[in-house]
Fold this sequence. Notes:
The protein has helices at residues 2-57, 68-77, 86-114, 120-145, 211-217; strands at 79-82, 151-153, 160-166, 172-178, 182-183, 194-196, 199-201. It has 227 residues and is an alpha+beta fold.
Amino acid sequence: MARSSLLHLIRSQARAYRSGHHFAAVAPHVSHAKVEVNSPTKFALAQRRWSSRAEDDNKISIGPRRGRDVENEEKDSGIVYYGPISNTIKTVKLLSLSTCCLSVSLGPVITFMTFPDMDVILKGAFASSIIFLSASTTAGLHWFVNPYIHRLRWHPGSDSFEVEMMSWLATYLPKTIKFADIRPPETKRPYVSFKANGNLYFIDAQHCHNKALLAKLTPKDRPFFNV
């Protein structure tokens, strides 16, 4: 009787060991299968999330971004107009300034090293032409975009307003202008809206949402309308 109960106990332990060993052998395959099933799904979701963020960051829009932060800034600082291509002008100006500096500093060195057998006078003339061409393009760009208003601050009821212009070093310069000083632009120069204190200014009428302010900035008695 004792022997039979002992044999029954040994058999039950053996069965339990075999079933546990089989589960341990199958479990890694099951977990690996779950990982293989879930990992592509997680990767696809992560890739979709990343692509949506990249699309939002790479969107090119003409004009300033409109959001809660911008609206709050407008309310606090009184900004009523943003130049739609202000960032583009600043980028192009910085690029032009960098190429001009490189031409002035490295142009003569490259010229004298590239043509060692050339006459010194010809080398100097060639280097001077490179410097002149680079400086003239930078000056021409500054002349063309100089009247552009990048930001305009105005509080309704005030007899003056403040504009932010850009210097030749691509830095913003604030200027205060009175409405009484605004005159029609007596020039055929393109992209000019009004004249004040001897300086020309341009405001994009399509992006100026305050029509009352726009009417004050664009006199009707000017000889022609500059778009």
